[in-house]
Design brief:
- Keywords: Cell outer membrane, Lipoprotein, Membrane, Palmitate, Signal.
- Together with LptD, is involved in the assembly of lipopolysaccharide (LPS) at the surface of the outer membrane. Required for the proper assembly of LptD. Binds LPS and may serve as the LPS recognition site at the outer membrane.
- Component of the lipopolysaccharide transport and assembly complex. Interacts with LptD.
- The chain has a single domain (about 25-175), classed as 2-Layer Sandwich (Double Stranded RNA Binding Domain).
- It has 3 helices and 5 strands; from the N terminus they run αβαβββαβ.
- The protein has helices spanning about 1-20, 45-55, 130-165; strands spanning about 40, 70-85, 90-105, 110-125, 170-175.
- Strands 1-2-3-4-5 form a 5-stranded mixed beta sheet.
- The radius of gyration is 21 Å and the shape is flat.
- The model is unreliable at about 165-170 (pLDDT under 50).
Length: about 180
Amino acid sequence: MPTIVRPLFVALLALSLVACGFHLRGQGPASALQYRSAKVIGNGGAFNELNRQLQLMQINLNAAEPEITIQILSEGTDKQVLSVNNNGQVSEYRLFYRIHFSASRAGEMLIDDQTISLQRNISWDENSVLSKESEEANLIREMQRDGASQIVRRINAASKGINGGQSMASKTATTSQ
């Protein structure tokens, strides 16, 4: 009898997750851009990642008149000492990543001058500098991916706001993990 109850419980749990609208990050309806064509202006890691994500969404990036234009105004990284050990050596850093962007639709400003700020903590060991530098580079790439995804979600939210008669004010958001 207990062998039947366990699979039934797991199936019921899975059904309740699906029924409540649960989605993995990047899999929900807000994760895909609601436009068929786009133009991304800028350079750097966020520009490359945003282009990659839009290509995966099958957005036309070579249209003569794109529906939306996304401009990466600037991006930057910074590193701050978070903690030191008994010998005065750094044992943990906090990495910061900022993307400054704007988006317009048909010449009309959709998102004006917003900043996405992300931060991650990384432990540091002077005995394994190469592996920690590689880990740092991976965390920065992860923040670039996360920032590009947040840009897409913000554009979708602003598009719904414009369509609903509301405007999107200039804001700054911070995300940390």
